[in-house]
Amino acid sequence: MSLLIKNGRIITAADDYKADIFISGEKIQAIGEKLQVEADQTIDAQDHLVMPGGIDPHVHLAMPFMGTYSSDDYASGTLAALHGGTTTVIDFVLQTQGKSLHDALSSWKGRSDGNCYGDYSFHMAVTDFNEHTAKEVGQLIEEEGITSFKTFMAYKGALMIDDGQMIGLMKEVEEKGGMVTVHATNGDMIDTLIAKHRSEGKLSPLYHYLSQPEITEAEASGRFCDMADYTGVPAYIVHLTCEGALNATRRAGSRNQKVFVETCIQYLLLDASLYEKDFDGAKWVMSPPLRQKKDQKALWSGINQGLVQVVATDHCPFKWAQKLMGKDDFSKIPNGHPAIEHRMELLFSEGVNTGRISPNKFVEVTSTNPAKIFGMHPKKGCIAVGSDADLIIFDPHKEHMLSADTHHMNVDYSAYEGWKVKGKCIHVILRGKHAIDKGKVKIEKGYGSFIKRNKVSKVV
Ligand code: URP
Ligand code: ZN
Ligand code: ZN
């Protein structure tokens, strides 16, 4: 099959120009003005933007968590992602404490293999670092193409590791050519605040927010950067939310450390006033919680200053019945919110169409940087001859409204209900296949492929 995309305005992280793109098989074969080629199918992209497919490096699909499972599985989650212009996701395998990394990988493969519409990869979350786990790190990098290792400095008793384990893992990963990523919040401080609020009978979602003040994230982010500096490991902080934590990463920058920062779309657009809506606030119970307007400002400028390199989602949806598990106690509300489908359109609407970021920066933080940081570039994350033909054809002016009535995620409410968005993904091409055509799905479940990733470059 071959495909010609004509007359589009091509936007990459670096360029902005008009040209045609010729695709044959899974790859981009030629880019040029008025290409004279015969193709099986032609799409006219006049007045539209042609950009690399989005890469969301932080999603949780069918994940066992807090006594339940996140409600999007690999089929519904990757399909919803495609509808919104995200062609590749990186999901998290969670080691069970006391078991091996390979045990966890085989159970995650059991749920994902053959079930994805979009392309996907895995980070490995190490929740129990020991002699056995250490031996598995190199195997996962060399044999499975899993090159990033996630750690939690919170969720004690389930996912959290202590600083001794963190240092041990960092040394091992550094030696084998991988990266350590982190949920950086101070788990002990948070647990103390949760216990205090519960003992005082303060049980509404607002107290989820009040149990995780900014300092818990700023302190852990700084400590993580210091440990990464000590061990020399390339590092990445997931879902950074606030000014204090961003400031804590500046020291890493001045030491020329390789520490990358991800924020998520919700921290740029939503704020903690949503927790004042009584139990309805449970829709936004996530960790870290939403913050203040001053934090949004710091994150937007962090993007433009290059301090924040990635905008992801931390998509971890739970249906309302699942959120109700915590109706009498905020600490039992499953943490997470649905966004996999909306990241690209929301960021374009609120970022590019408001003038906060350029179209090039949009591509950089939604696709090119995640591809580079996580070892998928130039296969993914760019528009270049020889790269995978993962493309979106985007109408920058089309207005539409977000709602649970129309979204494709497997969740019965929207965290963005009624939001008016300007900019819509009209066509999605995944490895040369026309996957989404004006909302119609043209590929089958199972088309999505597992992407083995490269080792991490030491160059900053
Ligand atoms: O609230 C969240 N973020 N849920 C998913 C797990 C995590 O911490 O990323
Ligand atoms: Zn987290
Ligand atoms: Zn997460």
Into how many domains do the coordinates divide? 2
What's the total helix number?
A: 13
By CATH, the topology of the largest domain is TIM Barrel
Ranges with pLDDT <50 over ≥5 residues? none
Q: Can you walk through the features of this model?
A:
This protein is of the alpha/beta class and 460 residues long. It folds into two domains: 2-51 and 389-398 and 420-441, Urease, subunit C, domain 1 (Roll), CATH 2.30.40; 53-373, TIM Barrel, CATH 3.20.20. It has 13 helices and 19 strands. Strands 1, 2, 3, 4, 5, 16, 17, 18 and 19 form a nine-stranded mixed β-sheet that branches. A hairpin with a 2-residue loop joins strand 7 and strand 8 (68-69). Helix 3 (131-144) packs parallel to helix 4 (163-176) and helix 7 (214-231) packs parallel to helix 8 (243-254). The longest helix has 18 residues, at 214-231. The protein binds N-(aminocarbonyl)-beta-alanine (URP) and zinc ion (ZN) (2 copies). One zinc ion binds at residues 183, 238-239, 287.
